[in-house]
Fold this sequence. Notes:
Elements: H1 9-28, H2 34-44, H3 55-76, H4 79-84, H5 86-110, H6 115-126, H7 130-140, H8 146-172, H9 179-201, H10 217-237, H11 242-255, H12 260-283, H13 287-292, H14 294-318, H15 323-332, H16 339-349, H17 355-385
Helix pairs in contact: 1-2, 2-12, 3-11, 3-12, 5-6, 5-8, 5-14, 6-8, 6-16, 7-8, 8-9, 8-15, 9-11, 10-11, 10-12, 14-15, 14-17, 15-17, 16-17
Amino acid sequence: MHFLMDPSLPKLFGIALVILIVGQIFLYFKQPVLIAYLLTGIAIGPHGLQLVEDTELINWLGSIGVILLLFFMGMEFSVASLVANWRISIFGTFLQIVGSVAAVFCLGYWLHWPLVRIVLLGFVISLSSTSIILRLIKYQNTARTQIAQDVMGITLTQDLAVVPMLIILGFLKEGAVDRVLLTKQLIGTVVIAILILYILKRKEIKLPFSRLFANDEDMQLFSAFCICFGMALLTGFFGLSMAIGAFIGGLILRSTKDMGWVKSRLEPFRIFLMAVFFISIGMMIDFKFIIQYKWQLFTLTIIALMINTFINTFVLRMMGRSMKEGLQAGALLAQISEFGFVLAAVGLQFNIITEYSYDMTVALISVTLLLSPTWVAIIDFLLRNISGDV
């Protein structure tokens, strides 16, 4: 008697096994398990064992994971506290972006880069990864601390700043950005601002179906999906990041004062899809390219982490935080965001950067994401062991 076996099952088993083994190693050393996901992506991807060939499916599932992550984040962070912290969120982000562009300008001027390339790469390194930072904050159990609120305010404002970044690049590089799309994005930004102001003004929002589905677990699950993906579709319609819409959906649910059931119903989906997202990032890392240009990449990685830490520490100090708090926040914000992939792709498409610069940028972003927990641990270790007040 013969049994038919799906040929994808051995691959799925291998992926799960790699995650378990690498995850246990990192948990033993008290490192976030998301690094295990990154290393799994490197191992199974097109530059590794080639267990996964459908990279488009992986990237799609990963994007859904980001949407759910931002949805949960919206439920956990108070709009009132973010608005109350507006000086750091807005002015801090502005100063941080200007500082990053200025740092790249020093290098670009020496290398005779055109202004548009300097601005593009400055924008890329100025962005920090909301998803990585959120996982680090969750791992440290510091979500309700002032530093966490400062960091999340800055990184969320950075995500929103991607739109004006594209506008600026469009002015600097004729034809690099669709003007019609940018108009839609500006309208979408206004709509988001109105929604946030409405949520802030109303102490509590009542959803018409919350009581209707109070005792039905199936309907609770799909009503949460409708809010999450519906808001994501709204911002996507305006050409903005769908993750921002999901974040707004989370804020709406937080304002209903009835969100406990959402976390319990969606947590398994979020864990799975976030794992897929970081696996997809790992699959983008080409080890042959890294080995060939290892010293250049190593130098750029250290420079990027140090510059971002220094700039963000300086900004937080200007905003009244202590040196210790500034360094902690600077370390959390040191990595480069996955939104950098989007800006780099725009730069390559319209010949702002070369193929080599694009590959190096992708490798740099991936490595900073990979090393982010280690960098935070190093800064924390130094802060704990430096005598006297910091």
